[in-house]
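Subject: for your reference before the review

Hello V.,

The reviewers asked for a structural picture of the protein, and I figured it would be easier to keep everything in one thread rather than splitting it across files. Below is the amino acid sequence we used in the manuscript, unchanged from the supplementary table.
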Amino acid sequence: MSSDLTIVLLSLRVAVAAMLMALPIAFGLAWILVRKQLRGRFLIEAIVSLPLALPPVVIGYGLLILLGNRGPFDGLAFTAFAASLASAIVALPLIVRTFVVALEAVDPRFELAARSLGANPWRVLVTVTIPLAYRGLLAGTLIGFVRALSEFGATIVVAGNIPGRTQTLPLGIFTRIQAGDDAAAYRLVAVSIALAIATLIVHDLLLRRGGLSGRRHRAGFGA
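And here is what came back from the structure prediction:
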């Protein structure tokens, strides 16, 4: 049971770290896609969506090249950082898509009004845009968090399956299935399902209360 707790706590730490990596990038990309008229918009959308199209193992292998012994960031492979980075990358497209919907729901006239009153762009962002979009932004964070918690393929390639260091919930379940320890596997599966359901319930409530549930079909880029 103590090893199960270690796995759960490590998984939560990895997922939180992944969100800290992904959220600033996701918000910046979503803001550019919504507020800027760019000729290269399609290219940005394609790059952002790429982790959804690629097998996670490919993402993990690419990270292993960068973080492994022969890569420019030698020594970072097979660490919790590598697991968090892998989770951040696979979660990023989902976060960006939800953030795009949230920002599209903000009436730009409020932002223009604040600018006309002398607020600089940073102040408008902090005092107008984010408060109006916060439910959708939080919902995107939650959906990214639950995706990070469930990441397996990229993580096992770049971070390995090291107990106490990189063995997250999916890897712990995989290990116990391989070992034929069904009871331990069932416990971790139950925890994984409980975390996912709780997060998705809160996510759905935020979308509904924020008036975004009717816009969820627009979460695909180019909508």
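For the response letter, the relevant points are probably these. The chain has nine helices and no strands. The chain has one domain: 2-219.

Happy to draft the paragraph if you're swamped.

O.
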